[in-house]
Amino acid sequence: METTTNGQNIKFNVFENVTITGANNSAIAYINSAGTCTFSVNTLQNVNTSNPLNTLAGIEVLNIGNHIISQNTLLNFTSASENTAFNTGLLALQGIHARDNGVFAISENHITDFTLSGNAATHLAGFSEAAPNAVFSSNRIWSFKNNSSLSGKTVNGIVLTKLNNGYLANNQIALGENDDAEYRGIWFATDDIATRKVYFNSINIAGNATGSNSYAMFGDNVEVQFSIKNNIFANRRSGGAGKHYAIGFNEIANISENSLNANAYYTTDLATCGLWNNSAVTFETWIANSGEKRLELSTKQEPIFSNVAICDLHLNTANACGFNATGIPIASITTDIDGDTRHALRPDLGVDEFTPTAHVGKYVWRGWETENWDNNLNWQCEFVPEIGTVELVQISATRFSAFINRPSPYTTLVLNQVEILEDAQLSVAANNSLTLNGDLHIAGTLTLKSPANSGATATLLDNGNITYQGTGKVEVERFIPRVEWHYVSIPTTTESSELFTSSPNGWNPNFLKYNEAFDGNGSANWTDYAKAWEHAHNGNGSPQAIVPGAGYANFDNGYKTVTASGFVNNTNVDVPIYFTDNDLNSKDGWNLVGNPFPSALDWDNPLWDKSNIDNTVYFWNQDASISNYSYYNGTGGTEGGNVSPLTLNNGSRYIPVMQGFFVHAKSTVGAGGANFTLPNSARVHSTQTFWKKTTAKHDNLLKINIEKDGMTDETALRFLPNAVNEFDSDFDAYKMIADSKVPQIYTITNDKINLAINSLPFFTEYLAVPLGFNAKEEGNYNINILELSRYDLPSDIFVYLEDKELQEMTEINKNDVYPFYAKTGFNNERFVIHFMKKAIEVEGFDIEIYAAESDVFVQVKTNEIEFDGTVKIYNLLGVLVQEVTIQNIPYIRIPVSEQGIYIVSTQVNGQTESKKVFIK
User: Is 843 a residue whose pLDDT tops 70?
Assistant: First the structure.
């Protein structure tokens, strides 16, 4: 049938059972008009030619007209043509051939069951063209065979020779038989000054080869420009002497960065994803060579099609994440093969615009909507990686960076593998944390954020390997308040003092390290050891390297957030510690170290080796309300972990990110030093600002503090089965006196060592422990009883606070407050804590009488300003053994030399009271 008339509309015809015998170029439908013609919804089937000189096309459209060729079915064509020429793009056998400069819309045609035979290297195609303005869209091409006897024969979906202003879009091509033909889904066959535009097509090549190569898309020595985007090129073919490629070009001179992008390439052999300049390359090499900069939009995921046998190449929506929303918008292509609207910003790959019904494969961050990690529209497959995700999570460089900011209780996100691509950024919000059970690959930036206050920095806990590529790095932020000293460290492998000496107010000289060897000349005053601090930089403009695992002190007049940048430490870090004996052991052996990891450290982790140090960590804690040392004495020691940890001044077992802290070396370390290992295995997540109070239960503990104007300091006494009266490195903590306005309190050992934590053995009847304090200014103070538990102490043992200056003995219990007035300075003589039995009361209530070991204590409770009287002590035979006169003295201690039971009789202002006591 031939039409040359303008305006013809040819529809709903059947052309079948046609045999062509001539030696001419033949077409069943020949559309040759300079006007407009529509050829639609026709069936052309059972067409045959046996003439080896013939070329055959089901439909041939030419001239300069504006023609629509749509919704036609071409079925069961056979040819014995041996014509191997490209005569105006015409092949031996094709379904539809278009040529000349007309505007041809060739769409929604089905072409199937074509067979070519003969004794030649011939070519078969669904479409062939020599028409620059043709548009081929939403067509289906499948089930072709080329049984020609000579090698070099090809089977093609679409052959392009001159296409320029037109394009291919939304076409489905499924080819491949068990034979020796060379299969090509799309073939750029000849050179021409043109741009080949190929968008949103789905191609599947299959079968077992017995001969040549195969390609889902192939350019054969062509020098044209390309625009190939949003396609799925799948080649499942295998076997034979050739190789099987998703895409291939022999000539690469005109491939630019914008030539190819956002395509899916899949081959069964990973080594033959592409043919690049006559060499087989992997997917990764193809991406690098071709300049597909948006690597995150291209994929090598295997497409699972609905039904390849009938060329239904819609994707299985339960297994199509890699193809969802990864396309680049093409202005001229607004619908898919079903007429559904393409997403204006992020279309799907291949012929179908779809909604995923399940997640399979890696999670890919696109950041289309916001920076919110939990917004599913920011993810390629619209599924958010949740806690426990084991698939790879890939962060790509797109509109918005990824930001993990989950409210409690989802503050810790646990993933497996994470890959941060070049120019991409993943940030973790303050008070959040990220755990990776697998590997982390960084070509972009991972940032652990700090709040703009003293809150907790985000933390990273990596249990796999960390690899870096290019400019990949980790940034760890920490906010530092102004006008406060802070002990700091770095979590990265390299950094300089400039990190801290740079200041909003100009250069800041206050970056110091502690000199353990400093000799305080035997001074008992901790403030004299301020001279042990030394500059840890070389001056303005001359930074000094910071040692990972070392601690430093930093002070600044302005608020600032420091950002340690580079490779984070994720193996054990060793730092040297020393003990220089300057004849005052409690002031010697102090080493300032630091947390070298991007996560907290757990001091109670059993993998710490504390053989060279005491079991207490000492922190400097300074904010707007406190400037004081915090203490944490950990579990373990000789008690094997059965002893509860103890914290003072809000100390914690958890050492935060970028936190410096003191450890005290044992004297056996010596001035030559030893290594102290900060174990990678002790890393944990912890979100406290500085310290988090322990909730451990203490059975035999007295914890008290001293308080003035809201400033407090704590000390503790506890009783342990294996404790000793001397300093014990497992259970005791030295008192470090803060050089601030905060009052200080501590207990004192028999050998005059001041302790913050004093662990003692159990006793039976009596114990006295001196209590010292340091008043920083004259005024009113309180001693507050914070905790008092005595479960393992005898039930008749009570606790008293003796004030020698006021001559008062006060029984104390939890929540009691003892107010007193003090002058400035240290006072180690005024207070004593007594653990003792009460005397047996005989009568009276105004006078308190106690006995402790060889002493009798008498306290007169009266409102009288002036009084006088006597205290008489009788043995059981009635013999007077002691007599003491009291006058306006409310408190008195009377020693008794011999053990026994005595009667203590008092007479004050004519009132007589007696009590029976036991003297040990």
Answer: no
